[in-house]
Amino acid sequence: MEVELRPEDIGDRVFYYGKGCDYCRHTGYLGRTGIYEILVLDDPLREMIMNRASTAVLRREAVKRGMRTLRQAGLHCIYDGLTSLDEVVRETIIEE
C-alpha cells in the first residue's frame, strides 16, 4: 500500500479490521472519528503566505515545522485501533 510503513513503524502493533455485524450493518464501522491537519501559523509561514508561496511549498515547510498531516493523523487512529488501514488509505491523499 501507499502508506510507506516500515517494519520499525509497525513493531508489535496489531492492526484491526471490522468483521461487520447487524449493529454496524455489516460494514465493520460505526460512527465517525475525525482526523485533523492543523496548520499553526508563525511569522515565517505568515510571510510565505504574504509572498504567495505555493500550497506545496507551504505544506512542506509546515511539515518540517511539525505539522501532522491527515495521513499521519489517520495512522495514529490505526495504531489506537480506531480504524483500519484501508479506511485511512481511502480517505487521505498520498503525501509527497
Summarize the structure.
This protein is mainly alpha-helical and 96 residues long.
Description:
- There is one protein chain.
- This protein is mostly helical and 96 residues long.
- It has one domain.
- The chain has five helices and no strands.
- The model has no long low-confidence stretch (mean pLDDT 85).
Which features characterize this protein?
single chain, 96 residues, mainly alpha, 5 helices, 0% strand
Integer average pLDDT: 85
Portion in helices: 40-55%
The low-confidence runs, each spanning 5 or more residues with pLDDT under 50, are none
Number of helices: 5
Q: C-alpha Rg, in Å? A: 17 Å
Give the termini separation: 15 Å
**Proportion of residues in extended strands:** under 5%
> How many individual domains?
1
Give the topology string: H per helix, E per strand.
Answer: HHHHH
Q: How would you classify the helix and strand content by structural class?
A: mainly alpha
Structural shape: elongated
Outline the secondary-structure elements:
Blueprint: H1 7-10, H2 43-50, H3 55-64, H4 70-79, H5 85-91
